[in-house]
Design goal:
The complex is a heterodimer. Helix content of chain A is 75%, strand content 3%. Chain A is mainly α. In chain A, strands 1-2 form a two-stranded antiparallel sheet. In chain A, a hairpin with a 4-residue loop joins strand 1 (58-66) and strand 2. Chain A is globular. Chain B is mainly α. Chain B has one domain (15-502). Chain B is built from 22 helices and two strands. Chain B has helices at 9-12, 18-36, 42-70, 84-100, 116-133, 138-157, 162-193, 198-207, 213-231, 239-246, 249-255, 258-276, 280-302, 307-328, 331-357, 379-382, 384-398, 404-418, 422-448, 453-457, 469-483, 485-502, and strands spanning 73-75, 80-82. In chain B, strand 1 and strand 2 (80-82) form a beta hairpin. The chains are: A mainly alpha, B mainly alpha. Chain A binds chain B through residues 64-69, 104, 107, 129, 132-133, 136-137, 139-140, 143-144, 147-148, 154-155, 158-159, 162-163, 166-167, 170-171, 173-174, 177-178, 180-181, 184, and chain B through 380-381, 384, 395, 400-402, 406-407, 410-411, 413-414, 417-418, 422, 425-426, 429-430, 432-433, 436-437, 440-441, 443-444, 447-449, 486, 489-490, 493-494, 497.
């Protein structure tokens, strides 16, 4: 069964989703939770069976689909994708379990299960076309989630979300077709397999164009400044579960794809674009942090802070060294946990008051102490307090980029301080002071169902903040392989210099040991 | 005194005529049957038509076998030309017709299907299209084209509504103009080369080294105009939305596939050698036509308020997309054309059939046209299965993976990439993005809006009012073709590529 565990992970939720049409409406939530728990257990099993010492792909599956055009169904995980897959199944599980009552809940759960299929598919696919299939397919359930269960502007928000990402990915598709064509020219066979593409060394001029084509697709998904305008709408209008999954998993597709495609395929172009992208990332960090400060709606604050942190992830990725990339992958997980939790928390208060305006609240700490505590913890994590999960990722990302540029890293560091300002202000407005609004006087504290989602997230936040090793080690292993590949493939002298030679590092380490 | 020409029967190679003659015999059979015993039910005629088309299919398999063994066949004084293009396109024509004709088995009674002549004309039309693709003789192509078109005009008019008459007359007038262009163009080519066979024309022009380029261009312009009308290329597209609106959804879906593939094959035979002769002017004009057709039709489709008109514009845009294959002119692009059209025919069959089963006889107040967007609002709440199926076809038309059209799209864009048409590839990709909007618009109406009161009461009956088991089966075929296209893709691609390659395209 382990030979096909990835296929099972991908298609089990979809199959369960189809079967879900037969389930009675009242039992649907229990069914959805059960399926998601099984799926999560399977993903934990994947982790259990995963060999931490192997840097390459594991659990590979290979089925020829269109051999004459080089399209194959190839799956596999390494340290980079493993934890994102686990996170995707985890968030679907707690998302469904803590779902607040809504209309046509059956359709919603079926949609979520399909969404889960596409999310896991994206992170497990090792063939560009299969990757693209899941990447695009993930838009449809999300479109429906936002459009059918969202706020008053939901249709505008969902269509904007769809069209933005759809356009970007089509340009990326042209890039993929070019890449396959170059592979065909070099070897005489068509192939869309990513591992095959890794072996291809392209001249720098081609790399720049292809990098740009892929970049548009990924940057819109992340979303990077100036392509970020769809995200506040999507978050603002989406139902809680939609925002949680969007922030925790869907956005990670973009940053993951940078590491899976852009960096190893186009090392020279990555170095060429390193500073422009770093500058965009820093603009993204600072600018969205400033917008977040100006927001009146708590959900928008969380949404913009989420964009701001995505900037740090991008910065870490484009540090192009092991610390930076490992840090950015760790931060992807951290960001998923923390911003997912924050969106859940916003959902909690929205369910009670049906408003998200901060001016409506105040003094909630008196009324809802447990809620305030968890919110406070997540807020600290989001700000990047040491001993919380975000700190590890942010620290490593910035450490990585520090080796490339001191000044830019300093700027990014300042941005984190700005982050503290808006988050703490928001916290003050909502929780401190006297209860001024009559409606807030008798709000019930977090219920058991909500705690079901929030407590595991709090535990993870602290646990991985104190002891990140179980996750960081496998990530590091795989990242070292990627960086080594990039170093080997780099053609320009600058790229050779910027991208460290990992195996060289190991040798010097042992050499110093011997000298001692 | 004329001496008798002595022609041996074997040299005529009459077997090449078999696939075209079978539907003709079928049509005559239906007419005779009607004379012997009138008033028979439409289901009988539907099944008889399917049976003859099945025989036709068998004959095509025969020719396909012969082609893969012996290569290109000529017959009947060398006017028939059975090559790979002819065989693939006839497969598309016959299979699509087989899938479309059962759409006559509706729940409600429609005027035209009570006439046996409808089915006879339908079969005549198929034979016309088959002649059109299986020849490189300009006169025989013309005869096939006119046989098919005249039958088609009548079929549209038989729908018997005010708008159908308007549609038929419009189509007829435009078709007549196109026929005029065609004959003038053929005349120019005949005057230039003394031949009406496309390969002869190509050879003579090649030998003359295109000295009379001015006249060649006049001929090409005429031909472009003529095929522009048939393929509804912008700016010759104006008839398309009105004709689609006027004809029944089943007929409109049929028109979006079969006449176009026939026209594509002829266009391919005619323009390919000119493109390969490096006539820059033609390349520029074709490039412009392709881009304008794709883009303008997409933009018009954005503002439509009726789903059928939207699909009409979308089919113009798809035709423009596929026209790119003729411009690119490599084996890969020509194979992509056929692959795309096969996949497109399944998806479009589904989309138009879904419209067809929701066809009402009387329109409620909120609905201005037969298939206005409002009609579909909140469909997921009243009839979820139908909404999901319709959504599936829309996603496929938008080119979302892994549904059928996505594969056609990537293969087509890939052929542009491979031949160095990078900008064209990007334009094609961006157009898919524009197109995404109007397909999503229907999904937005179906899935995200609230249903109209009267529809809640009758439990979404409206959307399947016209459905029968037969129609549902056809939609089932379309779903299978759309969703599981990726399984058949490899063999389809190999088959198409082999046949196109072996015909020298």
């Amino acid at each position: 069964m382990l030979d096909h565990i990835l296929s099972i992970l991908i298609f089990f939720p979809a199959f369960a989703g189809i079967m879900g049409f037969m389930i009675n409406k009242d039992s649907m939530r229990a069914y959805g939770t059960a399926v998601a728990v099984i799926e999560f257990a399977l993903s934990l099993w994947l982790w259990f069976a995963f060999d931490n010492n192997v840097s390459g792909m594991q659990f590979m599956e290979h089925i020829a689909l269109v051999p004459s055009f080089g399209i194959n169904y190839i799956l596999g995980v390494d340290g980079i994708s493993l934890f994102i897959i686990i996170m995707a199944s985890f968030f679907t599980m707690i998302g469904i379990a803590s779902l607040s009552p809504t209309h046509s809940i059956k359709n919603m759960i079926i949609t979520l299960l399909f969404l889960q299929m596409t999310m896991i598919g994206v992170f497990a696919a090792l063939d560009a076309i299969i990757f693209y299939v899941f990447w695009e397919l993930s838009l449809v359930p999300m479109l429906y989630l936002i459009g059918a269960w969202g706020g008053p502007l939901r249709i505008y928000a969902s269509v904007k979300f769809f069209l933005y990402t759809f356009t970007g990915s089509l340009i990326m598709l042209v890039g993929m077709l070019f890449m396959a064509y170059f592979f065909y020219q070099a070897t005489g066979v068509w192939s869309f397999a990513i591992l095959d593409w890794y072996r291809l060394v392209l001249p720098e001029s081609f790399q720049l164009w292809l990098f740009a084509a892929f970049f548009i697709g990924f940057a819109i998904k992340v979303p990077m400044f100036p392509f970020h305008t769809w995200l506040p709408y999507a978050h603002g209008q989406a139902p809680t579960i939609g925002s949680v999954i969007l922030a925790a998993v869907l956005l990670k597709m973009g940053t993951y794809a940078f590491i899976r495609f852009s960096l190893p395929l186009f090392p020279d172009a990555s170095v060429f674009f390193m500073f422009p992208i770093a500058i965009i990332a820093i603009i993204m960090i600072i600018y969205t942090a400033m917008i977040a400060y100006a927001q009146k709606d708590i959900k928008q604050v969380v949404a913009y802070s989420s964009v701001s942190h995505m900037g740090v992830i991008i910065l870490g990725t484009f540090a192009l060294n092991v610390e930076g990339i490992s840090g950015s992958i760790f931060l992807m997980i951290a960001h998923g946990v923390v911003s997912g939790a924050l969106f859940l928390l916003v959902g909690v208060i929205y369910d009670r008051r049906h408003t998200k305006l901060m001016s409506e609240f105040g003094g909630l700490a008196h009324v809802m102490p447990r809620y305030a505590t968890i919110f406070g913890l997540m807020l600290m994590a989001s700000v990047g307090m040491p001993l919380t999960i975000n700190f590890v990722g942010e620290f490593l990302s910035l450490l990585g980029f520090y080796q490339q540029s001191h000044i830019l890293t300093l700027l990014a560091g300042i941005a984190i301080v700005v982050g503290a300002i808006y988050m703490l202000t928001a916290f003050k407005k909502i929780f401190f002071g006297e209860v001024t609004n009559e409606k807030n006087k008798n709000l019930p504290d977090v219920s058991k169902r909500e705690l079901l989602a929030l407590i595991p997230l709090s535990i993870i936040t602290v646990w991985l903040g104190i002891y990140p090793k179980p996750i960081l080690d496998p990530i590091n292993n795989s990242v070292e392989a990627v960086v080594q590949l990039m170093h080997n493939k780099a053609t320009s002298p600058e790229a050779k210099m910027r991208i460290p030679n990992v195996s060289g590092l190991v040798i010097t380490k042992t050499a110093t040991k011997e000298a001692h | 005194m004329l001496s008798l020409a002595n022609v041996s029967l074997e040299s005529l190679n009459l077997i090449t005529l078999a696939p075209m003659l079978i539907p003709v015999i079928g049509a005559l059979f239906i007419l005779v049957l009607d004379i012997i015993k009138g008033g028979l039910d439409k289901s009988l005629y539907v099944v008889i038509s399917i049976l003859f088309l099945a025989l036709d299919f068998g004959a095509l398999l025969e020719s396909a076998g012969a082609f893969s063994k012996d290569g290109i066949m000529l017959g009947v004084f060398d006017v028939m030309l059975i090559d790979g293009l002819a065989i693939i396109s006839q497969f598309i024509i016959v299979v699509t017709s087989m899938l479309f004709i059962p759409l006559a088995l509706t729940n409600k009674r429609f005027h035209e299907f009570s006439y046996p002549e409808f089915f006879a004309l339908f079969l005549f039309m198929i034979s016309g299209f088959q002649f059109m693709v299986a020849s490189d003789n300009l006169i025989l192509i013309f005869v096939g084209l006119e046989t098919a078109s005249l039958a088609l005009y009548t079929l549209i008019a038989m729908h018997n509504r005010d708008k159908s008459f308007e549609a038929a007359i419009k189509y007829f007038t435009m078709g007549a103009l196109a026929a005029g262009f065609y004959s003038f163009g053929s005349m120019v080519f005949y005057a230039l080369t003394g031949s009406i066979e496309i390969n002869q024309i190509a050879a003579v022009l090649e030998a003359n080294n295109y000295t009379d380029i001015g006249f060649v261009l006049i001929g090409v312009v005429m031909m472009l105009g003529s095929f522009g009308f048939k393929l509804s290329v912008v700016p010759f597209h104006t008839w398309t939305p009105d004709v689609y609106e006027g004809s029944s959804a089943a007929m409109a879906g049929y028109m979006s596939i079969v006449p176009k593939i026939a026209a594509f094959v002829v266009a391919m035979r005619l323009f390919e050698f000119l493109i390969h002769a490096n006539i820059v002017w033609l390349e520029v004009v074709l490039y412009a036509l392709v881009v304008i057709t794709m883009t303008a039709a997409n933009i018009w489709a954005l503002v439509q308020s009726d789903v059928k008109r939207m699909l009409a514009y979308s089919s113009i845009s798809h035709a423009g997309f596929v026209m790119a294959a003729i411009l690119i002119g490599t084996t890969q692009s020509n194979s992509a054309l056929f692959l795309y059209w096969i996949l497109f025919s399944f998806t479009n069959l589904g989309a138009f059939s879904m419209l067809w089963i929701s066809r009402q006889k009387e329109l409620p107040g909120y609905q201005k046209t037969d298939h206005s967007f409002e009609k579909f609002s909140g469909m997921i709440k009243t009839s979820p299965m139908a909404a999901i199926v319709m959504g599936l076809f829309m996603l496929s038309l938008a080119g979302l993976p892994p549904f059928a059209l996505f594969w056609g799209k990537i293969y087509m864009i890939s052929s542009a990439v491979t031949s160095g048409y990078t900008v064209l590839a990007l334009i094609m990709a961006l157009n898919s993005a524009i197109a995404g909007y109007y397909y999503i618009k229907l999904i937005v109406f179906m899935f995200m809006k609230d249903p109209i009161e009267s529809n809640i009461d009758n439990n979404g009956e409206l959307y399947v009012a016209n459905a029968t088991t037969g129609l549902k089966t056809i939609i089932g075929f379309a779903i299978i073709g759309t969703v599981f296209a990726f399984l058949a893709l490899d063999s389809l691609l190999e088959f198409v590529t082999a046949f196109v390659y072996n015909s020298g395209y």
